[in-house]
Amino acid sequence: MGKKVKAANDAIMTGILVTRFQMGQIDVSDLEKMVIDTSKTERSSAARKVLAGIRDMPSFP
Q1: Which stretches of the chain are DSSP H helices?
Q2: Tens-place pLDDT, residues 12-61
Q3: Which residue has the higher pLDDT, 4 or 41?
Q4: CA neighbor of 48 nearest in space, from 24, 25, 28
Q5: pLDDT (0 to 100) of residue 59
Q6: Are 22 and 51 in contact (CB under 8 A)?
Q7: What is the pLDDT of residue 1?
Q8: Distance CA 47, CA 14 (A)
Q9: Number of CB atoms found within 10 A of residue 37's CB
Q10: CA 6, CA 22: separation in Å to the nearest integer?
Q11: Sign of CA dihedral 13, 34, 36, 49
Q12: What CA–CA distance (Å, rounded) separates 35 from 10?
């Protein structure tokens, strides 16, 4: 059951980061810093997913 909870938390964190990026509260450099910070694994994993999605966009900042 622990893996399901972690997956749900990761999905929630990804959604939060996407929303904050779209609102302009964070930018690419902030996400890159989050990826490097491995003390918070869920945030690091979510930031990695958001960066991958952003880089696939045609208008990459």
Answers
A1: 2-22, 28-36, 41-55
A2: 999 999 999 999 999 999 999 999 988 888 899 999 999 998 887 776 55
A3: 41
A4: 28
A5: 67
A6: no
A7: 42
A8: 7
A9: 12
A10: 24
A11: positive
A12: 13
